[in-house]
Description:
The chain has 130 residues and is an all-alpha fold. The chain has a domain at 1-52. The protein has 4 helices and no strands. The longest helix has 33 residues, at 2-34. The radius of gyration is 41 Å and the shape is flat. It starts with a helix and ends in a 6-residue tail after the last helix. The mean pLDDT is 70.
Amino acid sequence: xxxxxxxxxxxxxxxxxxxxxxxxxxxxxxxxxxxxxxxxxxxxxxxxxxxxxxxxxxxxxxxxxxxxxxxxxxxxxxxxxxxxxxxxxxxxxxxxxxxxxxxxxxxxxxxxxxxxxxxxxxxxxxxxxx
Length: 130
């Protein structure tokens, strides 16, 4: 009887291992289908179909522009613009009323002693039937 149980258990374990292996293969194939390899890997695997790979070194930065000649006199600042007149709709609007939000009353926090806490626990515990 023990041998039959052992064989049944081994059979179940083998089935689980086989199914897990198959599930792993399916998961890997799905991952491979959805993941795109980097361009360099594609170029190494199939050089004819891959797009040209950029050079390893970036192009050198362009030389800085030559310094501009400094003008002898600073440019004249533009005249200040007059402030636009207030819109009539805004002038007729009611002034904004700022309401103060009252703070909640601060409750006195009483520190409970250990005996108070134990008494509260004892009161809240279910009563045993006599």
